[in-house]
Write a structure and sequence with these properties.
With about 525 residues, this protein is α+β, with helices and mostly antiparallel strands. Helices cover about 65% and strands about 10% of the residues. Helix 1 runs antiparallel to helix 3.
Length: about 525
């Protein structure tokens, strides 16, 4: 009996534990440094508070544990929908919103915890210990919440965001973080301003407050106390400078990574696209300007993919040269009169063959025949305009001008003859029916344009030359030959071909007789293509 497989969670347990570990270590480090500052570095408070007692240590541990437990419980409860989300399942918009807001939520919980810590150690502990002072409580609240809390909150935000970015693309596999409803984002400018505030303004403010309070104390102190205050001031400056420098370095690295890493990833993705790998996608890991750049890059690459698919599909209908000219906008398809050579090819005894064969076999063989014939036409620069039943209409010299369009049309007809002979040889070996066709080639002035309705257009030729080319193809059956070339085409040929003159004939719709030539045994050089 097989065990059902549960789809993997989008936010795995290891990542969740890592986030909680970062949150816990960051807050613990901030709490310990704050405790050390007020109890051992700031000698003014240390003298007034006396020696550290076991009860104070227990109070510190209990208070920190309560705040840490409360913050962790609230954070896990808030993130539970993210942990429960499964890969492959439809994600609720609220889950996506929470995925974007997770770093902000942890930072908010951290800030609330430090506000609470300012009250617990700045107000409640002095009341419990019996040495409450309004000035000391205000100084403790500013130091705990305003300085240590601000730095720790910024560190927690950037550190958790860096880790969470590994999982964020799983919630937005198609990107488009900007479309998530009701989710605030911190812009790149906001990140830099926040980093500037934390790494420069806060330490400078702390140094300023310490210098002012010590200067005020010096005015009231005796010479011995003044010397101790100066020594303690030096210790405070060294401590604040060292801790501020470490905090500034850590936060600066995190902020630089939050901006630099996405840009480096985007640069790598651009390099992939430059090498032609259009399946490249840039992961979107932020809702700020770097995320918008990644979204724009992915839309651009998707557009390039669609353009490439269109280019490949378009190339099935026209030659690569014509396709590239049209897509580059170098061709006018609004309607121009050009001299071109038109080729018509039609299968002989098509109706009896269809009636005597299985329809699926007919379609398969007809497609194989068209594939062979179009390959010959495209090889010599021709464009297949349409398939009409078992008939092929092709043009040489339009829409891309070709001074040798007559020669190329004749070479294509010779190759079509050779390809049909080879294909029939394979069919005979398989016991299949041998097919025959007739080809008519005529050169003349035609109107080349896109023609159709507002909903559907096609590139077509209009003019007497088109009708005459079709009539010449029909004459090939009556004159017992497979390729007929008109007099106008013969006059424009630049090379010698095995042309045999046939009696002038009158065709439907023409008052004058038409001179035609049968194209006899092919010359090898004429089937070599254009190179």
């Amino acid at each position: 009996m097989s065990t059902p497989v549960t789809p993997p969670a989008l936010a795995d347990g290891r990542l969740a534990r890592r986030l909680l570990r970062i949150n816990g270590i960051g807050n613990l480090l901030g709490a310990v440094l704050t405790f050390v500052y007020f109890r051992f570095v700031d000698m003014a408070d240390a003298r007034e508070l006396g020696m550290v007692t076991p009860f104070e240590i227990v109070y510190f541990i209990a208070g920190f544990a309560a705040l840490a437990a409360g913050g962790s419980i609230h954070g896990v409860r808030w993130a539970r929908p993210l942990i429960a989300a499964r890969a492959g399942a439809a994600l609720d918009p609220d889950v996506r919103r929470r995925a974007i807001l997770l770093p902000y939520t942890f930072a908010g919980i951290t800030l609330i915890s430090w506000v609470s810590a300012g009250i617990i150690w700045g107000v409640l502990w002095p009341l419990v210990a019996g040495h409450f002072s309004l000035s000391r409580s205000l100084r403790a609240i500013v130091g705990i919440t305003g300085i240590a809390g601000t730095v720790t909150t910024a560190f927690i935000f950037f550190a958790i965001e860096r880790q969470w970015r590994q999982a964020l693309p799983r919630f937005f596999p198609e990107g488009m973080l900007s479309a998530a409803p009701r989710s605030e984002r911190l812009s790149v400018r906001g990140r830099l301003l926040l980093a500037f505030l934390v790494v420069s303004i806060v330490p400078l403010a702390a140094l300023g407050v310490v210098s002012y309070t010590r200067a005020a104390a010096l005015l009231r102190a005796d010479p011995m106390s003044a010397m101790a205050l100066v020594d303690n001031l030096l210790m405070l400056v060294v401590f604040i400078t060292a801790m501020g420098g470490l905090a500034a370095a850590a936060i600066s690295v995190l902020v630089a990574g939050s901006v630099g890493r996405p840009l480096a990833t985007l640069r790598g993705a651009l390099a992939e696209v430059e090498h032609g790998r259009l399946d490249t996608r840039c992961p979107i890991v932020a809702g700020d300007e770097t995320g918008a750049l990644a979204e724009g890059f992915n839309r651009m690459v998707q557009g390039l993919q669609e353009r490439e698919r269109l280019r490949a599909t378009f190339g099935k209908y026209v030659t690569p040269q014509i396709r590239d000219e049209i897509m580059a906008g170098r061709l006018s398809l609004e309607g121009t009169q050009v001299e071109a050579t038109i080729l018509f090819a039609d299968l002989r005894e098509f109706t009896p063959w269809v009636e005597a064969s299985d329809p699926r076999e007919v379609v398969r063989d007809l497609n194989a025949y068209f594939t062979e014939m179009e390959a010959a036409i495209r090889r010599h620069g021709g464009l297949v305009l349409q398939y009409i039943g078992d008939e092929i209409e092709a043009v040489f010299g339009a829409p891309v001008p070709d001074p040798e369009h007559a020669d190329h049309a004749v070479r294509a007809a010779l190759e079509m003859r050779a390809r049909l002979a080879a294909w029939n040889g394979e069919r005979r070996r398989r016991g299949g029916h041998t097919l025959r066709h007739g080809i008519g080639v005529h050169t003349g002035v035609v109107l080349a344009a896109t023609i159709g309705s507002s909903e559907r257009l096609s590139y077509a030729l209009v003019g007497d030359a088109v009708n005459l080319a079709s009539r010449i193809q029909g004459l090939s059956k009556d004159l017992h030959t497979d390729i007929l070339v008109s007099e106008s085409t013969r006059r424009r040929l630049r090379e010698d071909y095995a042309l045999e003159s046939r009696p002038a004939v009158r065709v439907k719709g023409k008052s004058a007789e038409v001179e035609v030539y049968a194209l006899r045994t092919p010359v090898a050089a004429h089937t070599s293509g254009q190179g």
